[in-house]
Amino acid sequence: MKQSSLCCVLYSAFTMLSFDVLATSNQTLTELMDQWLSIESQKGQLQRNWTIQKRSLEQKLSLLKTEKAALKSLLTQSSHEKSELDTQRLDLVKQQNTLEQAQQIVSNQLQQTSNVAFALLPQLPPPLQVVWQEKLMLLKQNVSSSEKLERLLTTFTLVSEFDERIALNRTSMAIPINNDTVQNVLVTQVYLGLSQGWYISDDGHFYGYGRSNLSGWTWWHNENADKALEQTLNAQGLLHLIDIMQNPTKASFLSLPIKINVNKAVSE
Q1: Are strands 196-201 and 182-192 parallel, antiparallel or unpaired?
Q2: 217-222, long-range: CB within 8 Å, 24+ apart, which pairs?
Q3: Alpha-carbon dihedral sign for residues 105, 111, 115, 116
């Protein structure tokens, strides 16, 4: 009887212990399930977040690749354009250097021509000297090469035109009466081109001959003119020439002495 009671007590205790262990196990299992479900939920959330971030990163990467390609194309185009600009700039520099060299050559030639013009000035007939003096003074102004060239052409054109005709000029000349006396006399000058000329007063009392030479234009007066020409200079012939020049209808042949060179004189 005692043994049976003991067995019942042990069985009851074992049963209660089993229930306690089972209850504890069920609680632990529930907690583990909750933790697993929480982890799975977090895992799913992480996967969703990663998927979203991945798409965003892929879009950004695609945009960056597109931007990189555009920048690369722009850099290539810019490099090409820079190369073309460098080439054009180099060509312009070469052209500028060529133009500057040509301008310097022209400037030097203009200066040489101006020097020649100033050197020729004293050898020109006196009325042309006055005009040339005014024109040449303009060359000393600070003007462009093209303007200097235009003025030089105008100046030499005047000489060419003067040389192609017989020119008359009314002026007052200082004529030596003797070694100590000079008299201003109104005369008419006649120029045959650039190299020969004569003058005579209205009354025919004063007359002379002029010629261009290396030292300049020189006048010889009255008897000295005869010596320079090695011929007699006829005052009436000069008056007749002036009358013909002023009245072309009275044209006729006449003879006046000129000096071709220092050793020879001929008449025309």
Answers
A1: antiparallel
A2: 217/122, 217/123, 217/124, 217/125, 217/126, 217/129, 219/173, 221/175, 221/176
A3: positive
User: How crowded is residue 43: how many other Cβ atoms within 10 Å of its Cβ?
Assistant: 10
Q: What pLDDT, on the 0 to 100 scale, is given for residue 198? A: 94
Cα–Cα distance for residue pair 257/232, rounded to 1 Å: 8
Distance CA 168, CA 244 (A): 11
- Of residues 225, 230, 219, 239, the one with CA closest to residue 261: 230
Of the pLDDT bands very low, low, confident and very high (cuts 50, 70, 90), residue 207 is very high
Domain containing residue 99: 1-105
Please check whether residue 252 lies inside any domain of the structure. yes
* Helix, strand, or coil (residue 219): strand
Q: What is the pTM of this model?
A: 0.58
Of all residues in the chain, the percent with pLDDT exceeding 70 is 84
pLDDT of 19 above 70: no
Residue 96 identity (one-letter amino acid)? Q
Say if 54 falls within a structural domain.
Answer: yes
**Residue that is last in its domain, among 86, 105, 124:** 105
On the question of pLDDT at 107 being above 50, the answer is yes
Give the closest residue to 236 by CA, choosing from 212, 265, 200, 198. Answer: 200
DSSP 124: S
- Asked if the structure places residue 25 within a domain, the reply is yes
Residues 3 and 80 in one domain: yes
Number of domains in the chain: 2
Per the domain annotation, does 239 fall within a domain? yes
Residues 148-173, mean pLDDT to the nearest whole number: 88
User: Tokens representing 98?
Assistant: 């060529």
